[in-house]
Hints:
The complex is a heterotrimer of chains A (268), B (390) and C (301).
Chain A: H1 2-28, H2 45-52, H3 55-88, H4 92-106, H5 109-123, H6 129-154, H7 158-165, H8 170-199, H9 202-207, H10 215-224, H11 229-256, H12 260-267
Helix pairs in contact in A: 2-11, 3-6, 3-8, 3-10, 4-6, 6-8, 7-8, 8-11
Chain B: E1 8-17, E2 20-30, E3 35-39, H1 46-54, E4 61-66, E5 69-70, E6 81-84, H2 96-106, H3 111-124, H4 140-152, E7 158-162, H5 170-187, E8 190-195, H6 198-204, E9 207-212, E10 215-220, H7 222-227, H8 232-237, E11 242-252, E12 255-259, E13 265-269, E14 279-284, E15 290-292, E16 305-316, E17 320-327, E18 330-337, E19 353-358, E20 363-366
Parallel strand pairs in B: 3-8, 3-9, 6-7, 7-8
Antiparallel strand pairs in B: 1-2, 1-4, 4-5, 9-10, 11-12, 11-14, 12-13, 14-20, 15-19, 16-17, 16-19, 17-18
Chain C: H1 2-35, E1 38-40, E2 46-50, H2 53-58, H3 63-93, H4 97-112, H5 115-126, H6 131-138, H7 152-177, H8 181-188, H9 193-204, H10 206-221, H11 225-230, H12 238-246, H13 252-300
Antiparallel strand pairs in C: 1-2
Amino acid sequence: xxxSRFAGIVLLLVMLFxxxxxxxxxxxxxxxxxxxxxxxxxxFDWYVKLFTQNQPIWEAFERSLLIAATATVASCVLGTTAAxxxxxxxxxxxTVHYGLIYTPLVMPEILMGISLLMxxxxxxLGCGLFTIWIAHTTFCVSYVTxxxxxxxxxxxxxxxxxxxxxxxxxxxxxxxxxxxxxxxGIVAGGLLAFTLSIDDFVITFFVxxxxxxxxxxxxxxxxxxxxxxxVINSLSTLMLVFTCVLVxxxxxVANRRHRRPAAAKALK
Amino acid sequence: xxxxxEFLVFDHVTKRFGALTAVDDVSFSIKKGEFFSLLGPxxxxxxxxxxxxxxxxxxxxxxxWLDGKDITDAPPNIRRxxxxxQNYALFPTMTIWDNIAFSLRLAKKPKxxxxxxxxxxxxxxxxxxxxxxxxxxxxxxxxxxxxxARALVDRPQVLLLDEPLAALDLKLRQHMLLELDTIHDxxxxxxxxxxxxQGEAMSLSDRIAVMNSGxxxxxxxxxxxxxxxxSSFVAAxxxxxxxxEGTIVATDGDYCTIQVPGFAAICAYNDKKLDVxxxxxxxxxxxxxxxxxxxxxxxxxxxxxxxxxxxxxVIYQGVYTKYWLKSGDRSVSALKPHSRFLLDxxxxxxxxxxxxxxxxxxxxxxxxxSALDESLVQTTxxxxxxGAVS
Amino acid sequence: MSSFREKWAEWGVTLPSLAWLALFFVVxxxxxxxxxxxxPSADGGYSSxxxxxxxxxxxxxxxxxxxxxxxxxxxxxxxxxxxxxxxxAYAIARMKxxxxxxxxxxIMLPFWTSFIVRVFAWRTLLNPDGFLQHLLVSLGLCTPETxxxxxxxxxxxxxxYSFLPFAIMPIYTAAEKxxxxxxxxxxxxxxxxxxxxxxxxxxxxxxxxxxxxLMVFIPAIGSYVIPDLVGGRDSELIGNKIYQxxxxxxxxxxASALAAxxxxxxxxxxxxxxxxxxxxxxxxxxxxxxxTARKLSGGAx
Lengths: 268, 390, 301
């Protein structure tokens, strides 16, 4: 009893610790004071500045979206095939395959960043959007694979056998039966990949080239040069809202399956 | 065996997994429209046999013929043999309606025909109201019915059922047994039913193949398998039995006398005309043994086997009471059905001295036996409560 | 024939991801390791001759100092994260199912927001003109001259903040499966509450704790953004040095050697944990087999 209360208090303090910087940041985005030490009055100025005077931020944002979208698509394809192979076969090839998928998950990002940079330098590939796309796809593949693999392990393989049994060819069974079952896993993996790609700083930092700054790189350089700190606050607040909406949306997608029968009935 | 004229033929089929021989040189044939069961303990090879017929495994040697065609090497999607899987294996992303329509859509049947067939199937399994639900919203019994409908809708040549009732509870299982029987009568398709539950097999099948370690031990009608088992394995696996192992010491017309070490001499019906000196296992089913406090009246016949014994355990099980008796060095189990509760015959309780007796015609001699089969015979009361019904 | 086709199918499905990762993960890793054996060249690349010079440099100061600092800050971060996570995981696991999902979601939510933004928030928070300094001064806990930012302490706080969710989640997952009636049983038998926690709850979630330690230690070792934004000149970590050698100094062999050092300091604990998990699995399997055997022999007797 006493113990539970102690644990509860620690949990409460930890939650405070986790949200304090975020709350202060959001508050400061509406704070007239330039340095945010104390409350100087409410203002929308920083948001107005963000939208009217900061074209480079929006260009960087567009680049981030482009890379995240393309890297998500590529990693979903690679990750899904990888998960299928890992689930279906259990031989030495798959042991090696699994090792390759797993290791990037436990390697510090900076190592992947520097090694890719060294390789691009060695083969003389100029860094830019293309190299960023390669890097992002590489680290996203592992996450998508793991998500899809978890989904595959959840469902009964006999379902595929049942499809063959009823006359389906392997291709038909894959597209009509297996893929629909995997889709929630692929979507979840894709959302994860998209979030990780949009958010990635360290790897991108190493493999970026002139004119290829993504949003996190842009924010970093603004922080580094102490330029327009309050504008970063307002931008960050918008990003927080954006992420929350995305997370909520993915939760809704995950729960959608339970409500579909009613919709199907209504259609008929 | 004329391969071409039989409907479904297993011809010397063998399948190995590494060092293990799952199916060992099995040959038998099945008639068209028959309800056929493969019965055996887990690991006896029955599921492997079924999967070879479904096309999911290929035999190492031997052929499988269906309706005059060799289907041994045909992939599952080519053969018109459908399976009802143990865990139903319904497509989770499709509605019940779409699940059932799956094979018809694959065959590119006209839309009107698909609708007609699927609705007819839904009607048959009484699931019309659930057509637009998803499998996750159904109960076990409902899923099972859908799985059967999905496999039957395009009229396969053979329907394979792989332990279809194993995941259901007892009441539902009994209900589904009746339903399966009705469906089989309605559609007239050949059913091949795999189970480890002798009750299911006995109540449904036209014929049963009892399998043990990769071989078919006996293939016969349910009654024959119960009453005239060819081996001690079959006798012990199908229902409960008492085994008396001994040697024939005298023959007398249709009857013979068996000397059982540690027990008395037993008289048994000698249908196989075995000679003196033959070692045999005599199987006597518990329900055929009467237990009374007084000896049987003499008019029951001179040959009757009567033994004095002491009651060591009494287990009341509703429908009947099971007695464990000690006679000589032997423990004998006997069942006594209750016809008139309380008014019933004299009460027999623990430690009573009672007579157990049976007619020589009720014992059945088995000359094939192996030591391993002993484990199948219930020897301790603690293992008894499951009873002989299941 | 069919196994031949099966082999083709397997390669067909495996090859895309296998080839991609071989090309963009294995090859670059090998290259990095290789470059560490060359000398830097004047044009910012590396010369072709083989040398051990880089490795000699790595084991001397100031590199040695940086490597040690990285390891102790990472170890301290890991320790603090675990100490904070244990009561949190315990508290969440004892909640009702509905609340559990909500609180676990709230703990993970900051993780979904931009990492760089979170570090930036701390930078402003720890700023001499920032909220925290004002708060602490008014509480009399520090003077206006105290520097909260730009030192190892700041790195530690922000690291704990950033990696805490990674520690809470695995321990919480393990705690969720923990049978809490064991604790009640222990207390019923007279154990003091902390004793019960230490002797029963802690061993019950030890797998979660070990995973959590790994999940925190690895990114802490590889940290770059945190020491760069809230660390000072004398609190550089390996990550900063790799960056500095790669870009401003353009000394690729030194950067490569440092990357290799970082790789090893991650691989060693990783291998230990993998070995430990394997041993635990083997023990559990053995125990299970023994129990089954005992049951079987008991049933036969």
